Fold:
Amino acid sequence: MEFLELHELSILRWVHILAMVYWLGGEWGVFQTSYHVTNPALSLEERKRHMETAYRIDILARTGIVLLLPLGLHMGKLFGFVPMLDGSGVWWMWLFFAAWLGMTWGAFIKRETDIGVKISRTEELLRYPLIAALVLFGVMALSGYGPIEVGEGNHWYPAKMIMYAFALCIGLFLRLVMRRWTERFRILAMGPDAEQEAALAREIGQARISAYIYWITIASVCFLGAVKPF
Structure:
């Protein structure tokens, strides 16, 4: 315990870096796999195998993105930016995100079932108030108000929160696309369907544009955390 207390910030920073690596690398893996998932020249079974690979890669990215927020808030507490997490507050915060991570993995494990789709949708609904809160608190902190307390030279922290919230918005859309893949492949399993193939092609085109914006956003979040420019 003494070792953990002595190196608490360094350990949190290390795990934070790992989470960011899995987030960024995982999204690249899903992006590349998507070319085969939506390729109508391949057999349905082959495409489903690639979709399974995409889901297995994506769960690491999803785990990373979920962990980044509590890790960032915990480090913010140590920096004195989030005083509301002092005392038992930090443990309640970790309990909340442990439940969120449990839902993320539950949706992954049950991804081919109706209950998996329901868990995924419920988890997505939780993101909306979370995104709104992150943006609100970030803007308030930049204005000198609110529960996030930062001084001159530390505005990178609320800016990072806002950028992370934007990344969550993009992630919501990409998750929607992947969930639609599951639903569309159920229909395609019953036989060729030109409408579903056209929808797959349209959605993957939109998702690829979103993915480029996603990577720029992730890189920006990394930059703010590493450089702390303002």
